[in-house]
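Quality-control log, excerpt.
Job 1 of 2 completed; input and output follow.
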Amino acid sequence: MKCQHVQEWLGAYWDLPEDDDRRQAVDQHIEQCESCREEFDIWMESLELIRGTAQGNEERVEYVPVSNQVMSRIYADESWRMPVPSKLYAFSYKMRRNLAAVVALCMTLFIFGFVFAIAGVGADKTPKYGLKPVASVSTDLNSISNKTKSLPVATASLKDPYMVTMGPIRSVPDYMIVISLLGFTGTILIMNWLSRTKA
């Protein structure tokens, strides 16, 4: 067997089964040829080195992106830049109870104010008419009739004018609805502000 064939087969030597003819021929040749024996020893050392490094690197090193390291350093130096969901403040039980009571009070005020505004509770039930009597400055009818001439009143019809009835007009602003909405909005804004500043 020629040395050139043996050197070509050395790359596939360890993949061949032990009863393969080529592997047995390589074994016989390296026992007789000194240069091929040295080449075989180099291949053997390389194989052991590769297997040793492969076994040593079984622990996979997790890749940490550079951007995560940069952002964590920025957040450590300037905590106010941190996004709100990642730094939410954990409210104590007492504060949560008090804030829940304030929100419940505001919602109750809103509901009652809304119901009263819809139902018209407290409004004047007497209907208002389209024509109102003229107010007189003086109640003394004799003095008024003596000072003025009686003029004939021109009318187009002898019937009484048609009176249009209108429902009660609410002129009182709904303070409870406005105050409850302001309180509810203020409570939500304060909770948001506390979650940002106390983290």
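Job 2 of 2 completed; input and output follow.
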Amino acid sequence: MAADKALAIVVRGTDWSETSRIATLFTREFGKVRALAKGGRRLKSNFDVAFDLLTVCEVVFIRKASGLDLLTEARMNEQFPTLRQNLPALYAGYYVAELLADGTQDYDPHPPLFDAAIQTLRSLGKGEKRQPNPLTPFPRKEGGTETKSGIDTPQAPVLSPSPCSGPREASLTGPESKDGGVGEGLQPQPTSPSPLPEGKGEQASDISGRTASVNERVVSAPFPSGRGDGGVGSPPARDADLAARVSAFELVWLQELGYSPRLEACATCGRERLNPTARAFFSPSAGGVLCPECGPAVADRRMVSGESLETIRALSAGGAGPELPPGVRTEVRQVLGYAVSCVLGRRPRLLSFVDAR
């Protein structure tokens, strides 16, 4: 029997036995494929891929009449490790995998949907890189005793910074006297807090909110702004970016399945909207907006602002920029969430995690 080759995304995995595993793959050439990887759980297997979720791999499989194909070869093509440094983006990636696994049929190829999924995963895992905040001591003049704060500290002892949030008792590393004690002139003297130069006010306090003295090194929080979800070195994606990317993928998913919402005219009677920017009724079961005459007869209707409808229309056309306006972000996510849930027949499990941000 001839084998088929395809480029696939791992969207689900199930342990079949102690050594084998069932992988649900969404391929560009054949659509969704469920295949058995014999020996896929062994440490030394014939597969050059661990079948982790959201892994892009090149696969070779043999079709079986039983419905469960046989996977003979798999080679990793691309991974998205930065998603694991950003919890909201990871939830969004799992949400994409859920829509591909539960919202498509076996051997029903959708190349545009596959390309949109790859593009979405790449954009979710892409972020501006920044270096961790360095621990820079206060500058001192070489060979002198004057510090930037103006306090006379000859041969100032080096303080060992604590890894904890608050300061701890410092250890002195200056020269010792003959009797083993601290040398003269190196006795620690109590110092009062000194104001820092202008523009450094945000770094003058440690994490616990206490003012740091002049001779203390302040360890700033790893996330100076926003939420600390993304790990040091890769800041978390902003909520507006994530919402726009997820919403754009949902619209491609709806369009490929034949459920793209109708926004220019009434989904029931076909009457065109006279004012596209005005608010209107929206019904997921009807498939789009409703006119004032047809709206009251539909049970699941809800009023949606004109700005949100324009944003959805722009996202469908590939526009609206990388971010959603803050005022319409929540409403757009609710409208598309209702539409996706109506098509699936249930609310997606990962949708609550995506919209919780």
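Post-run check on job 2. The chain has a mean pLDDT of 75.
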